[in-house]
Amino acid sequence: MDIDYLPRILNARVYDVAIETPLEPASDLSRRLGNRVFLKREDLQQVFSFKLRGAYNKMAHLTDDQLERGVIASSAGNHAQGVALAANELGCRSVIVMPTTAPQLKVDAVAARGAEIVLHGESYTEAFARANELMREQDLTFVHPFDDPDVIAGQGTIGMEILRQHGRPVHAIFAAIGGGGLISGVAAYVKRVRPDIRVIGVQHVDSDAMARSVAAGERVELADVGLFSDGTAVKAVGVETFRLVRKHVDDILIVDTDETCAAIKDVFTDTRTLLEPAGALAIAGMKKYVAETGIEGETLISVACGANMNFDRLRFVSERAEIGERREAVFAVTIPERPGSFRRFCELVGDRNVTEFNYRISDESDAHVFVGVSVTSRAGADEVADIFRADGFETLDLTDDELAKVHLRHLVGGKSPLASDELLLRFEFPERPGALMAFLRAMQPHWNISLFHYRNHGSDSGRVLVGMQVPESDRSTFMVFLDELGYRFWDETENPAYKLFL
Fold first, then answer.
1. Are 374 and 352 in contact (CB under 8 A)?
2. Which residue, 136, 428, 139, 174, is CA-closest to 299?
3. What pLDDT was estimated at residue 457?
4. Which residues of the chain have pLDDT under 70?
5. Residue 64 belongs to domain with CATH number
6. Contacts by 169-172, CB closer than 8 A, 24 or more apart
7. Is residue 97 part of a domain?
8. Are 131 and 241 within one domain?
9. Quick one: 119 and 194 in the same domain?
10. pLDDT tens digits, one per residue of 89-111
11. 329-342 b/e with 16+ CB inside 10 Å = b?
């Protein structure tokens, strides 16, 4: 059934708990992008996210009997806070099932609003399944985070406010997509009132169920999702949101972690506010759109949809923001081990800011230098590399090499003549107790760990680099071990940076 969302949005009950958030100009982003950039500041809602709009609108339409029995929801955090707030306002019981991977900040915020919290599973999908079981067992009413017309209509009031606040021409509105509730509501309103405005969705590269579904022409369920952008980590989009996105959304852009971190920094520069990764996706997508299309002088609006950032994640964000903004380039440079070579190399670097420099002697004829240099663009990285090569220094650009950025910068000079039969693998361990022991117990006792590197970045998973001495005759057994272990991994044994430094 094709629902008419215009009257639903116009009559949505959201302002008992939500504020009409400001549409603020982003002066620094506008200057850098050559367009008029505005941020719709949904991070300023009392739960620091837009989610209370849809949750309250849904619950405000429940019957007295439904409210008396109570509600249940599944959420990684922001929708949970919206449901808990609405339950307080409407005087009803609320039960929230959250995945065990939900940021503690969000768990604490939900508990502070009086909701009963159940932690279950490692993803939204598992939490959703448990919530449905409890709904049937306790006769509760389910408040879906995105696939419900009343929830979609509540989020659609953001689009209504944007057009009321900015009556002049708008080229495009950008919004993050997880399950699709936000962009469905915004697009349903905007395309009815101002169909000339482009509505563009943005997804994180490891949680792109909507983009894949639209490309396939049917809903696609992902086998797993990354949790860096936990607010959009959804394996399968909604039936109604899929329909609305196909009908109203002009395009979906995919951004990676570095681009998202750079967008968080961009918004901080303009507003002194720290968005969570999901909250910054729209800004990252907007920047990508400008870079790909080359548009200038247009009005672009991004929905800054959430600011529930775990503090311990800031270290990871700050480290990756410079690379995401293409302000740092990382190189491995080989220079002769003879007097004057190092001085010549420094002369080539010139007055550029050196962000990192690692070196350890390991060969009588050549020295391998790991160096980070500040640049203003990807072209700047190519320019620096060309300068090194033109002077006869063999140069490997590692700016886009995940192994180099996460691990090798801390391990330069680690070659060992004892590491025979060594395989190098990069793992993502779940950030939970026992993950390492599970790995060790699954190993064959005669396989020796020859390298192990881990650093807590405040990310959704532990980045671990492991060197293991596995005899050639055991390689097939080793592949079975990796398959049964179930951790995401990348074989880096042939990585050129590994061969150079380790």
1. yes
2. 174
3. 46
4. 1, 322-325, 337-340, 342-343, 346, 359-364, 412-416, 431-437, 440, 451-462
5. 3.40.50.1100
6. 169/299, 170/194, 170/197, 170/299, 170/300, 170/301, 171/35, 171/197, 171/198, 171/295, 171/298, 171/299, 171/300, 172/197, 172/198, 172/199, 172/200, 172/250, 172/286, 172/289, 172/298, 172/300, 172/301
7. yes
8. no
9. no
10. 999 999 999 988 777 878 888 89
11. bbbbbbbeeeeeee
DSSP state, residue 181? H
Using the structure block, give the residue that is written with the tokens 């009031």.
157
Residue of 277, 275, 236 whose CA lies nearest to 459: 277
DSSP alpha helix (H) spans, 194-276:
209-216, 239-248, 257-271
The Cα–Cα gap between 136 and 392 comes to: 71
The CA–CA distances, whole Å, from 393 to 60, 130, 409, 502 equal 68, 59, 20, 20
Domain that holds residue 361: 326-400
The reply to whether 279 and 352 lie within a common domain is: no
User: Would you mind telling me the total number of residues written for the chain in this entry?
Assistant: 502
Q: Which two tokens stand for residue 69?
A: 């029995």
Residue 115 DSSP one-character state: P
Q: CA torsion sign, 396 to 400 to 403 to 409?
A: positive
Round to whole Å and give the CA distance between 492 and 467. Answer: 10
CA-based nearest residue to 145, from 62, 205, 70, 81: 81
Instruction: Give the model confidence (pLDDT) of 184-242 as tens digits.
Output: 999 999 999 999 999 999 999 999 999 999 999 999 999 888 878 988 988 999 999 99
Q: Is 363 exposed, middle or buried (0-12, 13-18, 19+ CB in 10 A)?
A: exposed
Same domain, 173 and 237: yes
Residues 6+ apart with CB under 8 A from 194: 163, 170
CA distances from 200 to 36, 179, 206, 240, 300 (A): 17, 15, 18, 18, 11
Two tokens, residue 464: 């671990």
In a domain, 408, yes or no: no
Q: How far apart are CA 60 and CA 320, in angstroms?
A: 42
pTM equals 0.75
Residue 442, pLDDT score: 78
Tally the domains of the chain: 4
In a domain, 407, yes or no: no
In this structure, the number of other CB atoms found within 10 A of the CB of residue 80 comes to: 31
What is the C-alpha separation between 240 and 248, in angstroms, rounded? Answer: 12
